[in-house]
Amino acid sequence: MSGFDIVVNNGLWFDGTGVPGLRRNLGIRDGVVAEVSIDPLLAGPDTEVIDAADKWVLPGFVDVHTHYDAEVLVSPGLPESVRHGVTTVVLGSCSLSTVYSTPQESADLFSRVEAVPHDAVLRILQEKKTWTGPAAYAAALDALPLSPNVAAFIGHSGHRNFYDAVIVGCPDETLIGKNFGEVGDIRGVHPVDAYLDLVVKYGKKLRWRTTIANHRPKYAKKLASSSGVQMGFGDVGAHLRNMAFYNYPVRLLKRVNDAQGDRKPFLTVERAIHRLTGELADWYGLDAGHLRKGDRADLVVIDPAGFDESVEGLFEATVPEYNGISRMVNRSDGAAVATVINGRLVYRDGAFAAGFGIEKTGRFLRAGENSPAMESVRASVAP
Ligand SMILES: [Zn+2]
Q1: pLDDT cut 90: percent of the chain above it
Q2: Ligand 1 centre distance from Cα of residue 90 (Å)
Q3: Which of 93, 94, 141, 358 has the fewest CB atoms within 10 Å, counting from its CB?
């Protein structure tokens, strides 16, 4: 039958539970997966058709560690994540949250710990903060035209290391490419003093990027396959000038795919997808991360042919909501080629859908609760 809002044909479908992929066709209607079929699904006149031949169709990624707390209030589309197939983001990581802190405290916390611009956070919170506790906070987020789904912590812990911080911009060009530890060694001072001296001398003209973890592939693979480790430390929305892991789920899938090609597999594709979707959602009690019949339709179409060097690349994009500063982002547009959130196609082939960031597609997800769309479809598909 037709009457689907979206049909995704011929893809290798992974349901997010860790079972191997199957060649299936998906029909999406009213925000949920209405059909998973071996047979081709007919498209109606208004059906959006995604041809996923040679591609993977999987649950949208769940990014459990982000710092979009201020950004989401003024840019509820969160395009830097959605374009990489992230359909649920969790706020309130690293001990920081706006739930109980004042606008001034939030500006101090997010600028000092997460390198988000102080004046922008202060301005945004002064304008937008209407809550004094969790219930009103959740309601305020849910009133935004969210593109992805959002969940939140109230707040908890942090860390950092100067020896991995490499200078990428400095009026003294002889320092570019060196880390603060090396500069300290050359000058006979502590790395923190070397850093502070350069900040005093060059101010905002000094830029650096930092390796926060996982730069040794052998150990990163070991961690990625350890059941005691969760897949999720993108830290997106923070450290705007120094880091960009918006597409970390795509990076893990590329690493898994490359390792299989090299005949040195460390995770199966289905297990990696499970780690990035259903495993996280189940652990946090979120109604997300699965793509079975009856599940809420959050999905990403991945093209393994797009696993090229752009996946690990760093690019720049301005942030109008943060005074137009340039931030590091990811642009691996050949890898995550389509993103669907609650049954609505929000991103495809490098472009956002009309109404993105203006019309609401995401919602606030409460731990331990199923979304209304999921309840209604369960009732309608029940025998
Ligand atoms: Zn963090």
Answers
A1: 77
A2: 11
A3: 358
Q: How far apart are CA 137 and CA 174, in angstroms?
A: 48
Say how many Å lie between the CA of residue 169 and the centre of ligand 1. Answer: 23
Question: How far away, in angstroms, is 232 Cα from ligand 1 center?
Answer: 10
The rounded Å distance from CA 158 to ligand 1 centre is 7
Report residue 184: phi and psi, to 5°.
-65, -40
Global confidence as pTM: 0.79
Q: What is the mean pLDDT of residues 244-258?
A: 96
CB-CB neighbours of 236 under 10 Å: 28
Tens of pLDDT, residue by residue over 211-225, are 666 778 898 899 888
Rounded distance between C-alpha atoms, residue 68 and residue 82, angstroms = 13
What residue spans define the domains of the chain?
6-159+212-381, 162-210
| Cα-to-centroid distance, 303 and ligand 1 (Å) | 29
Q: How far is the CA of 237 from the centre of ligand 1 (A)?
A: 9
Distance (Å) from CA 27 to ligand 1 centroid: 37
Query: Residue 127 Cα, ligand 1 centroid: separation in angstroms?
Result: 24
Rounded to the nearest angstrom, the distance between the alpha carbon of 238 and the centre of ligand 1 is 7
- Name the token pair of 294: 């009856």
Q: How far is it, in rounded angstroms, from Cα 28 to Cα 43?
A: 11
From ligand 1's centre to the CA of 177, what distance in Å? 25
